[in-house]
C-alpha cells in the first residue's frame, strides 16, 4: 500500500521567483554544461525514485509584504504493498511536524504504482487505504492538502512535455530500470518502467520546489530532476519564452537536496544492512502500520540480533543493534542519549519486550483512527477532492507556462 516514491512522496510560484543566475533563462550556459557532465557521471550509479521525499518551495516574498509567505512542501507514497514503519518514520511522521510550519501537499502516487504488473482492484483499495493512513498518522486536512496523483492531470501532462527534452541515454542508465527489467524479463516490462523518472521529475517541478529532503545516501537521486529542470530552462526559458508572450526567466526552480533528521532510513528486521522495504519477499522483514499487537510481538521476537554483550548505537559491526535502538528512540520520543543510557546493559530478551511495548503503544492510536476514517468513505472522498482542487490550481500554472514556452497554441 505504500512503496516510497521518495524515496519516493515540488511547487508553484505565486509571484515572480527569485533565481540566482542573471542570465535570461535563469541558468548560465557554464552551469548547464557542468551539470550535464555530472548527470552523465552519476546516471550509471544508484538512482532510485524518491517521490516519497518531501519537497520544499520558497515563493518569493515581497519586501513590502506584511507577512511572510510560507514555504510549500509536497511529498507522496505509492499505494503498493503495506505502509510500513520505514515509510512512517522516514517520511510521514516528518510531515506532521512540517505541516505546522509550511504550506503542505501530500499525495498518493498511484501513477507510479503501475510501472510493474498490478491488480486493478488492489490498486483501488490501496489508494484509499494509503490516504486513510496519511490522516490517521496525523496529517491534518485543515493544514495540509491530501490528494491522489492521478486526480491532478498536470502530472501526466508535464511528464510528456519533459519527456521530449529527456535524452534516452539518461533513462537507459537508471539502475532501477536495469534491476527490475532483469527480474521481470524484458518481454514483460512496460515502457513506464523506463520513463517513470520523468514522471518523478514532473511531480517535483510542477510545484517549483526549492528543496527535496532525501537521505544522506540518496542525494544523487535528485540529480536527474535538477538536470532536467536546467535543460528545459536552457532550451525554452528566458528571452525565448518572453518572445512567446511569457514573463521570461526560468520555467523551473532547480531544487536542492535537504537532508532530514534521524529516521530517514529504517532498516530491515532481518538484515540491518538493507532498507526496510515493501518489495522484500518476507513480511517478517518489516513492521506494517496496521500489524496487530501479536504480529508485532512475533516479528520483534524473531528479528535478527547479534551475540555482543549490551546494546549500543553506531557500532559498524552491529547494524541490527543500531537499527533497533533507532526505532525505539523514534517511537518512544526519547533522545539518543536517553536510549543509550537506558539500554546499555540490557540483554536482547529484555530489550525486545521494551521495543514491542513501545511500538504497540505508538501504533495503536494510528490503527484506531484508521478504522474510523476508512469506515467513513464520504469524508475521505471529500478530503481527497478538496486536496486535488488546491493542487490543480497550483500545478496548472506551471504546466500552462511550459506549454506557452514550448510554443503550443493557447487553449
From TrEMBL:
EC number assigned by the record: 6.1.1.2
Name the record gives this protein: tryptophan--tRNA ligase
Subcellular location: Mitochondrion
Keywords: Aminoacyl-tRNA synthetase, ATP-binding, Ligase, Nucleotide-binding, Protein biosynthesis
Annotated Gene Ontology cellular component terms: chloroplast; mitochondrion
Entry superkingdom: Eukaryota
PROSITE patterns in UniProt: AA_TRNA_LIGASE_I
CDD domains referenced in this protein's UniProt entry, alphabetically: TrpRS_core
Enzyme class: ligase
HAMAP family per the UniProt record, alphabetical: Trp_tRNA_synth_B
PANTHER family: TRYPTOPHAN--TRNA LIGASE, MITOCHONDRIAL (PTHR43766:SF1)
Keyword Manganese: no
GO BP terms: post-embryonic development; reproductive structure development; tryptophanyl-tRNA aminoacylation
NCBIfam families, A to Z: trpS
Gene Ontology molecular function terms on file: ATP binding; tryptophan-tRNA ligase activity
Protein family membership: Belongs to the class-I aminoacyl-tRNA synthetase family.
Reactions catalysed, as given in the entry: tRNA(Trp) + L-tryptophan + ATP = L-tryptophyl-tRNA(Trp) + AMP + diphosphate + H(+)
InterPro entries given in the database record: aa-tRNA-synth_I_CS (IPR001412), aa-tRNA-synth_Ic (IPR002305), Rossmann-like_a/b/a_fold (IPR014729), Trp-tRNA-ligase (IPR002306), Trp-tRNA-ligase_bac-type (IPR024109), Trp-tRNA_synthetase (IPR050203)
Predominant location: mitochondrion
Organism of origin: Solanum pinnatisectum
